[in-house]
Amino acid sequence: MARRPRKTCLWPTVLTEAILLQSLLVFGAHAADTVTSAGSAANSAQLTDSSDSVSRLGGTDLYLEVTLNGAQGGLAHFGYLDGELWASIATLHELGFALPSSTPDPVRLNSLNGVQANYDASRQAVAISAPLSMLKLGTTVLNAPENSRPHATASPGILLNYDIFGTEGQQGSSLSGFTELRAFNSSGVFSSTALSQAIHINGAGWQNSSVRLDTSWSTSFPDSLLTLRLGDTLTDALSWSRSTRIAGVQLGTNFTLQPYLITAPLPAFFGSATLPSNVQLFINGMQQYSGQVPAGPFQLNTIPNISGAGNAQVVLTDALGRATTLNFSLYNEQQLLKQGLSDWSAEFGVVRENYGLTSFSYGHDPVGSGTWRYGVSDHLTVEAHAEGTSKLINGGAGAALLLGSAGGVVSASLAQSAYAGHSGSQYGLGYSWRNDRFNFSVNGIHTRGTYTDVATLYGSPPPSVSGQVVAGYSTEHLGSFGVSYVQLRYPQQDATRFATAYWSKSIGRSLSLSLSFNQNIGNAASRSMFLVATIALEHDITVSSSVQRNGNSTGFVVNASQSPPSEGGFSWRAALRQGNDQNGGQGEVDYLGRYGQLQAGVSSIGQTRYGYAGATGALVLMGGGVFATRQISTGFAVISTDGIPHVPVKLENNLIGTTDSQGLLLVSPLNAYQNNQLSIDPMDLPANVRIDRVKALATPTDRAGTLVRFGITPIRAASIILHDDSGQPLPLGSRVTIQGQADNGSMTGFDGTVYLDTLGEHNTLIVHTPTGVCRASFDYHNVSETIPTLGPLLCRKDISP
């Protein structure tokens, strides 16, 4: 690779050497492509030298493999003179150097301040070490979040959720039922809820009532993060505005359509590595990320598993084992939107009145409402809200600002209204800060004049003063302490003010204590105190005891309960009360099964005694089957094994159930708009079937189901033994086809055996042997799930015409 050129004929030698090296490089790069990624292969490209300044040195021309700060730099042209390496400015620029314009061309590498060049003649390589201030390297981005968008589907179906509850007591009986009827397909979801009641009072007979609650149709557009809803809905609201129940149309942002989308600002940690290094991120002492970075600047994005203020450390360990620690302060707050992200909603309709009392009661005046939030930067989120109806206009704006990297969040809002000649305003201010031990927040809203919103016209006005202060501190050994103050005042009413103090402490793994004190500031005699002790026992049994002091009376309560296992089973709950004229107890038994949940119990507290029972569950009609199951509030799937019964199905590698006699299984709950992996074991299937796949992804839409098939096809298969006219097995390798089928058939094996899986009820085999063609006919009748062996069958030779 290195040689001494002749002075009088330098350029032919250099040209010949460059051509040979280029050929070797192309071959080497092609070989490297088979074992390296595209990014690594890019580093193998030759760096061209557009300047002949090195050649004019009169020394030795070298083409060396370059390593710059531990990273591969490819093949580059250097000059070797008087024991020193020289390089042209063009070569150094391509390697990543950013040199002043006054730098001589060519330049001796070791003359550059802070640069060290170690030339290895045996390997024809050079290792260059340079300060980052002299280099212009790209920024490496680590742990960049991906917003995966799986394609969600919904199959046609109908679902009925139900919740039935009945009582029987001294005064009479009652029976109530809440139902939700849901119909869905790929176009959207129709939903209607209702509440029905029947009350029997001794001596007065039965009184029945039924009320429709909400009816709506909705469809979503995941790529645009939008949901359109027609019918009964709630208007969107901010922390300083109020929602209103309307019937109409709503269109707005729905972040749940992309569950992997990160809406809050994402902390980024910046640093530089002189050599290829391992980078580790610790947040509050817990490792959150570990990876590799090349030499140069890097940016590490992460989702911190904290809320509030925290400390982050980035530890860089280079190839020489030297560790460098970078310290950062951070603050994570969910009320902020990341830069450039928008969240909005618009509604138009009429206000729903007497909700829960009458089925169809609406206002006459149309109502419009709009809400908008926008992340101006990762530290500032602005928001606005406006609403209006006949004679009313209301609008306002607000903002949330992160003070520095860990200074907490301050928020403010201002709204103005005008109604029937009267005007009013509302302003709010708040601040919050917290870390893993301390939390503090203060916020307040105050109205002036006649401040009116749409909710005021159909209900109560907003409070004229609303304020809250909360502070808490957690210690390692003494537990958690906290205090709060709440003030609330409505127009034409006296203010309500309460102060609260609490303490809680966990002792070991099973015992926890809590103590709280509540004082009405306006009434010294109105105070209460609670002391609760909770013990967690084996088998999911929990026992708690509490003492409550209200004014001058004291009450005692003892509760014991056992939680139902997630896979189903029995659970129970029992309670005893003493004091405050509430002496008595309660007992209940529950059963959680595959088809729903049942409960039954008795209660005797004070002068009230009654027994009760209830049932919750759902009925689903989908995929050609009817299913009874637990209540379904989110997405689900119906699994089809194409009529094959009793096939075990796994969800995320956990057994979830087996298909019924129709080869169907309902799986719930599933995460909507997320990939849920379902699988079956082919060893659980009969031998006479063909399966397209053993794993499938179920991605349902919200509140809807999707049909999942594994592509299981029954086949007519058999191992057939064929003999010739003399009773001997047909020769090995004879080609066998089925008459009337266009496939290539199969080959006979030992003893004249051939396997065929496309048989019909009546079959004629055409066999091509070394001595000619023969035929065999037979009927196929198989009632078992195994693959039968037929024969031996006589294969008769075709008679020549």
Automatic annotation (TrEMBL):
Chain ranges of the PapC-like C-terminal domain: 722-780
Any one Gene Ontology cellular component term annotated for this protein: cell outer membrane
Keyword Signal found: yes
Extent of the signal sequence: 1-31
Protein's name according to its UniProt entry: Fimbrial biogenesis outer membrane usher protein
Keyword presence, Signal: yes
UniProt source species: Paraburkholderia ribeironis
UniProt superkingdom: Bacteria
UniProt GO molecular function: fimbrial usher porin activity
Pfam families, per database record: PapC_C, Usher
BP term (GO), one: pilus assembly
Source taxonomy: Bacteria, Pseudomonadati, Pseudomonadota, Betaproteobacteria, Burkholderiales
Keywords: Signal
Database matches in InterPro entries: Fimb_usher, FimD_plug_dom, PapC-like_C, PapC-like_C_sf
